[in-house]
Design a protein that fits this description.
alpha+beta; Alpha-Beta Plaits; 2 domains; 9-stranded mixed β-sheet; 31% strand
Length: 264
């Protein structure tokens, strides 16, 4: 039996749900040895993210630490002009920019993505599992007890390469109705308590208000060190897209797919 597996986590699943789903499928196929086999995953993926998830089996679980620092590659679709409090679609909408898709597309076509390459201190997102004072940050966020911005914990990460992927000038447009529909489809796949009812209400209202308006999206491919948050990178890029005196049009990670884990 292999000691290490690479599973394809689906949108909406937690890593644990992906692992246990794999175990259940093996048992259903008649592989009874999986029932009591120690298994763990090395490296998290957010519920809205999909792709490569490293699973350790048996004695290899004891070596988990050596797998946690592996480099990763992601394909990220960024939606510009919309922000949420989670930096992805599983969050409450906090901002919708007034700028047109045409203006934003023009600004994006001129952005130098190479300025994001290198080492930097990335603050943990408010909605993340990082523990502060005995509570995970997402619990602090929901209770209104988050540390001040300058006291939020951070991690030194490194982006090795980043480039636009696919469409002409790296951009395409979607209507607000299309965006809301895709966001809702993804959110409905999530189990557990992630404020889904409030968030779904927000996307339904977004569709009603901005249904016919076009929004700009672009896809990027990123090779980076372990622990680099793609949704934080998306938000950061959005804040740097400025039109006139705009403070930044804003952005969120509309989809995140982990394509590679170094060595696997």
């Amino acid at each position: 039996m292999d000691k290490i597996l690479l599973l394809d986590k689906k949108v909406g699943e937690t890593p644990l749900e992906c692992l246990e789903g794999f175990r259940a499928s093996k048992i259903a196929e008649g592989h009874a040895e999986f029932a009591g086999l120690p298994m763990t995953y090395a490296g998290r993926l957010d519920p809205m993210a999909s792709g490569a998830l490293l699973i350790l089996l048996g004695e290899e679980c004891k070596k988990k630490e050596k797998y946690l620092g592996l480099d990763k590659e992601y394909e990220v679709e960024i939606l510009f002009g919309v922000e949420t409090d989670t930096q992805d679609v599983l969050g409450l909408i906090t901002k919708v920019a007034d700028d047109s898709a045409e203006m934003i597309s023009r600004a994006i076509s001129n952005i130098d993505l190479q300025k994001y390459v290198g080492k930097f201190a990335q603050k943990y997102p408010a909605y993340s599992s990082k523990t502060v004072g005995g509570k995970q940050l997402h619990t602090h966020a929901r209770e209104g007890t988050l540390p001040d911005a300058d006291e939020m914990p951070s991690l030194e990460v490194e982006i090795y390469s980043i480039k636009k992927n696919g469409e002409k000038n790296g951009c395409r447009t979607m209507t607000g109705a299309e965006i809301a529909r895709k966001a809702i489809e993804a959110i409905l796949k999530v189990r557990g308590d992630f404020r889904q009812n409030e968030i779904l209400d927000g996307w339904n209202n977004f569709s009603k208000k901005y249904g016919t308006r076009k929004f700009t999206m672009t896809k990027i491919r990123v090779l980076c060190s372990s622990g680099t948050y793609m949704r934080s990178l998306a938000e950061k890029i959005g804040k740097h897209i400025k039109i006139g005196a705009d403070a930044g049009v804003g952005a969120l990670a509309f989809s995140i797919h982990r394509t590679k884990i170094a060595g696997f």
